[in-house]
Amino acid sequence: MNEKKTGTAEDIVLSVSGLSKHFRVGKRTITALADVSFQVKRGIVTGLIGPDGAGKTTLMRLACGLLLPDSGSVTVLGLDATRQPLAVQQSIGYMPQRFGLYEDLTVQENLDLYADLHNVPMKERPDRYDRLLHMTGLAPFTGRLAGRLSGGMKQKLGIACALVSPPPLLILDEPTVGVDPVSRRELWDIVYSQVKERGMSVLLATAYLDEAERCREVVLLHEGRFLGQDTPQAFSSRLVNRTFTIHPRGSGNRRQLLRQLRDHRETVDAIILGDALRLVTRTSMTPEEAAGIFAIDPAQWQLEASRPRFEDSFIDKLEREKEKEGGGGSGLRAIKAGAVQAKGDGPAILVRDLRRDFGDFCAVKNLSFTVQRGEIFGLLGANGAGKTTTFRMLCGLLPATSGTLQVAGHNLRVARAPARARIGYMAQKFSLYSDLTVRQNLVFFSSAYGLSGKRQKERIRWALESFELTELQNNESGELPLGYKQRLALAAALMHEPEILFLDEPTSGIDPLARREFWGHINALAAAGVTVMVTTHFMEEASYCDNLVIMARGQVLAAGSPSELTARFSTPDNPEPSMEDTFIHLIETFEQQEAATGKTTGGRP
Amino acid sequence: MNPMRLRGLINKESRQIIRDPSSIGIAFFLPVLLLLIFGYGVSLDARNVPLALVVEKNSPQAMSLVSGFSRSDYFLPIPMRTIQEAEQAMMRRQVDGIIWLRHDFAREMLTGGKAPIGVIVNGVDANKARLIEGYVTGVWFNWLQRMKKAMGQELKIPVTVEHRVWFNAAVSSRDYLVPGLIAIIMTLIGAMLTSMVVAREWERGTMEALMVTPVSMKEVIASKIVPYFVLGMGGMLLSVLMAVFLFQVPLRGSMLPLILSSSLFMLTAINMGLFISVAAKSQFVAGQIAIVITFLPAFILSGFVFDIRTMPVVIQWLTHLVAARYFVDILQTLFLAGDIWPLFLINSAWLCLMALVFLVIIRKKSRKLLE
């Protein structure tokens, strides 16, 4: 961090100093950025890392001259973005969050438009297009409408448009959101090729912490404040001797151990990773000391030191920030869920040869899996893999075309209503009434599930207390921070004490602390006997599950526990592949097979 | 303005128009639909008005009056026995008026020359009621005249009114409505379409990407005006052709003022659309605002249906803010009366002023900023 002041003006492409920006929403003022200062160096990829609401987009828009700062300044390539926005816009490439493509224009027409707007001379164009199309793999699709491209291809076209007049500085706002891991990896290749070939400087915003490690430098933002800037390695190295992995030896209950670790004041972070647990401690210690401090039974568990990851340091930073503000680290306390009596035997969910067609498009085919009671079961897949369709069928919202579907012992094809009474569902966008208060939402959802009188009162009290919403009960739910909204949505789905809980992408967009807390609740529920079925596109979250299936194009590519799945792709080069490596490997193999059998012609649509 | 950027933007806009069925729909389908509805469906004339004829006692005199109503194009008489029956038919809206000839009609007429006839008109629709009243009086006078002549007497009616209607001799409301309707359609195409396409760019996030290019707001505005002007003039041409060839509305004026004033009005309407889009960043809001601040005033306050001179003075003043008012005036004159240059110039000057005012506001308000 001390080296950042030493760069000369030549080496700095973007300089932010004392930058503040507020927005008014109704009567409230939201601070998007508060006195942020940092510099971005030439010729490297700098990551702007932070959860939703950190101020990443605001900062980028200020740098592009699209917003005016309340105070402070942004200098881009030596130009003041506030006073000379046109000059800045002439020299940078920018891709906004939704790629900025015209969906009713073809790939070629989008490129032509941006080339015209950037005044790229006609004779330079064929060569430029050639290279961009080749690099992005879009060459076979120049005549296709942008709206008909897959998410990954749209994102690549977006980048190509931003690069059409090779800018010295490329600004990418969350280019990898909603894009499958394969496309994410390809995007990083494109970015790095530009840095290498042209010495381009890149500022890239992302909420995925695992992407931070791909950046040369990262700038951490949280709730509009600057938390630090350094190389990802330097961030992680502060946690040396503070990160541990606990492998099972006997048949110890890892959820119980997780609880035990989380309640300890030396713990910064504790999560389940497949069969094992991962622990981040407040101070550095040897594995032997750690085993002693956390009272880990050596007969059941084996604790060993592990390599710190960027995410650990981010959590650590956030925790410390919280402490500085005086807010206790209460975020990790899990709810007290009453034990659920298993009604009937057999698996919680049984799916055999499930199929769903939409017209002549087959969204889900030959789907079979079993979810045991009290299990956390994950459904992993890129957009369009059929996750949501499967989910809707399981919740009885969409009839299956054929196959067997049993939820909580009820055949969903004949007995939807009794099955529905036993399940809770939390949708992606939380489906809360934003103009009702927290309490009113709980009252509404509990009555919707048929609760009334004393029992309703009890459940509302339980929800307010266990999710620490009592103080906020009269606030409008639309004004809650994202993490609290999520708590409320979870509470609403649990009002009728369901046996099975369905969570559709529950953690997208919320900060890692809130995500940890959320998984704490989920683990507590599972420990109490609730079956949890979850979809996610966060690959590391997949490792929190007991079992999972990986889907692509409506089919199951692989099923098993996280450690079984990753073990399958262990190679001498990569003895411990991550979930993402596994996922990418599976998808690539699948696509090669598809291509070989001639089912598709060239690339994903 | 940079020619390459402008050309790029106009190309883009034109391609979007061609590929977007809703723009084509608003520009060509909507005029056809509205013209058909108003041309065939809505008429301010009263023709074939169902009328209950209560003849309590048959007599030659009564029969001749009844035949007077039967021969009239305006009425469709339905004979009834009693007034109660007729009143019920009126309640059920089966008839719009009642002619009541009492049992002593013939006797009274022959003896005292004072033949009472009862006329009851449904006054719910005041306009129609007045029309019916007038037509009934007409038939009545005709019949009186015939009767007196037959009886060898001169008719003693103090004043006979001789009607002569200018410009629209047949008093066909269609000839009067269709030209005004064209102005309304142009308002819709210009204001609604443009405000919505700009809002669409905001909604889809393309405006943000566009702004971080060297493009200037002047170029963006120009690139919206040019293609939608062409599209709107296409709709205009279609409407005029339909008016002249399908509805047989006479076009007495010449082409030059028609083209000039349409261009001017099209420009004003598009500028109003762009003006709306400065404030509205979602298609839904833009559409709503366009309807409330352009379409409805154009419909009600332009003189298209409701005569401005009969409005309260304050409202009359308000109509000066409605661009369609000037164009309706120009079109009605051009179609029904011909080239009346002083009228044309005054109205065109107003349109010019409005187009300019909107353009200035747009230029001032549209900055390359997201807030």
Structure description:
Chain A has 605 residues and is an alpha/beta fold. Chain A folds into three domains: 2-234, 3-Layer(aba) Sandwich (Rossmann fold), CATH 3.40.50; 238-332, Alpha-Beta Plaits (2-Layer Sandwich), CATH 3.30.70; 373-388 and 415-592, 3-Layer(aba) Sandwich (Rossmann fold). Chain A has a six-stranded mixed beta sheet, with helices on both faces. In chain A, strands 20-21-22-17-23-24 form a six-stranded mixed beta sheet, with helices on both faces. Chain A is globular. Residues 1-6, 328-332 and 600-605 of chain A have low confidence and may be disordered. Chain B is of the alpha/beta class and 371 residues long. Chain B has two domains: 3-42 and 172-365, no CATH class; 49-150, 3-Layer(aba) Sandwich (abc type-2 transporter like fold). Chain B is 67% helix and 6% strand. Chain B has 14 helices and four strands. Chain B has helices at residues 3-19, 21-41, 60-71, 83-91, 105-112, 126-150, 173-203, 206-211, 217-246, 255-279, 283-301, 313-318, 323-336, 341-365; strands at residues 49-55, 75-80, 97-101, 117-121. At the A-B interface, α2, β6 and α3 of A face α1 and α8 of B.
Using brief descriptors, characterize the structure shown.
heterodimer; A: 605 residues; alpha/beta; Rossmann fold; six-stranded mixed β-sheet; 25% strand; disordered N terminus; B: 371 residues; abc type-2 transporter like fold; 2 domains; four-stranded mixed β-sheet
Q: How is the topology of this model organized?
A:
The complex is a heterodimer of chains A (605) and B (371).
Chain A: E1 12-25, E2 28-41, E3 45-49, H1 56-63, E4 71-76, E5 79-80, H2 85-91, E6 92-95, H3 107-117, H4 125-136, H5 151-162, E7 169-173, H6 181-198, E8 201-206, E9 217-222, E10 225-230, H7 232-237, E11 243-248, H8 254-262, E12 267-273, E13 276-281, H9 287-293, E14 301-305, H10 310-325, E15 349-358, E16 361-371, E17 376-381, H11 387-394, E18 402-407, E19 410-411, H12 416-421, E20 423-426, H13 438-448, H14 453-466, H15 482-493, E21 500-504, H16 512-527, E22 531-536, H17 539-542, E23 547-552, E24 555-560, H18 562-568, H19 579-596
Parallel strand pairs in A: 3-8, 3-9, 6-7, 7-8, 17-22, 17-23, 20-21, 21-22
Antiparallel strand pairs in A: 1-2, 1-4, 4-5, 9-10, 11-13, 11-14, 12-13, 15-16, 15-18, 18-19, 23-24
Helix pairs in contact in A: 3-5, 5-6, 13-14, 13-15
Chain B: H1 3-19, H2 21-41, E1 49-55, H3 60-71, E2 75-80, H4 83-91, E3 97-101, H5 105-112, E4 117-121, H6 126-150, H7 173-203, H8 206-211, H9 217-246, H10 255-279, H11 283-301, H12 313-318, H13 323-336, H14 341-365
Parallel strand pairs in B: 1-2, 1-3
Antiparallel strand pairs in B: 3-4
Helix pairs in contact in B: 1-9, 2-7, 2-9, 3-6, 7-9, 7-10, 7-11, 7-13, 9-10, 10-11, 10-13, 10-14, 13-14
